[in-house]
Amino acid sequence: MGLVSSFGSINQIRQNTPLTDDMIHRAAPSIFADAPHESRSDRYHYIPTIDVVNALRSEGFFPFFAAQTNVRKADKREHTKHMLRLRHASQINAQEANEIILVNSHDGSSSYQMLAGMFRFVCCNGMVCGNTVGDVRVRHSGKGDIIGEVIEGAYTVRDSFEIIENERDTMRSIQLTPQLQHGLAQAVLNYKHDDPLRPAPINAEQLLRARRQEDRPNDLWSTTNRIQENVIKGGLSGRNAKGKRTTTRAVKGIDQDLKLNKALWAFSMEMAKLIN
Predict the structure, then answer these.
(1) Where in the chain are the domains?
(2) What is the pTM of this model?
């Protein structure tokens, strides 16, 4: 059974079987908004997320994760940015499942967006696959069959899974020297901590530490997953700019989660191209 968790900037639920509407509503009520926020003009085209979810369910895609951004203004709680991860019925019990990542809002803070993702059951930590593969956006403007566009977009994302799986297999086939592993980890660390006045409190070697035996191999795929889990889950001890002991925080914001995951996948694929 999945439990609703609140981590400051995000409220979320995940479980190993499809989420019911009641489960989703507990964590992300904005998914059920029946109208856009009052701040939106008449030009705003409302895309009801729950209608999209139900349409995707009828096509065999089921939600396993739901989250929404926590907001200070109570009147925006029912309309704020939210994210769902949906898996096709044919992959429910797979060790690694391809997922459609759905992002939307009803307050103008986000366009409707679908991306391709991959979920590893070994660590329950999803990865977003790249900037250009399976990225579909629908603006909250214009007219037409919005739900139809969304369904078509879901299949566009699904069609990109073969590309993603090929990229994953390429990563698995590439062995990295300690120097190359360090270089990849350092690139991610520099990307996440790009403010010279607030340097990273940890070093690249900490991002390379395996949290389980399965991730110890030196291939590019295992290295990428070690880095990803350490960056996203946090909990690493270090020192801040003033020399005080600190612990890295888990990444819980929807935007930062997607941004870091997409960047890591892009860095890893660039390394694969350089080696091959």
Answers:
(1) 5-161, 174-275
(2) 0.77
CB neighbours of 74 closer than 8 A, spacing ≥ 6?
none
Show the CA angle centred on residue 71, arms to residues 69 and 73, nearest 5°: 155
Residues of the chain short of pLDDT 50, as ranges, are 1-8
pLDDT digits (tens, 9 = 90+) for 207-263: 999 998 888 999 999 999 999 999 999 999 999 888 899 999 988 788 888 888 889
- CA 37 remoteness from chain centre: 25
In degrees, rounded to 5, the angle at the alpha carbon of residue 243 between the alpha carbons of residues 238 and 245 is 40
> For residue 52, what are its two tokens?
């999209």
Backbone angles phi, psi at 219, to 5 degrees: -70, 165
Q: Given phi > 0 = left and psi -120 to 50 = alpha, else beta, which region is 275? A: alpha
Greatest Cα pair distance in the chain: 57
Helices (H), 77-219: 146-159, 161-173, 178-192, 204-207
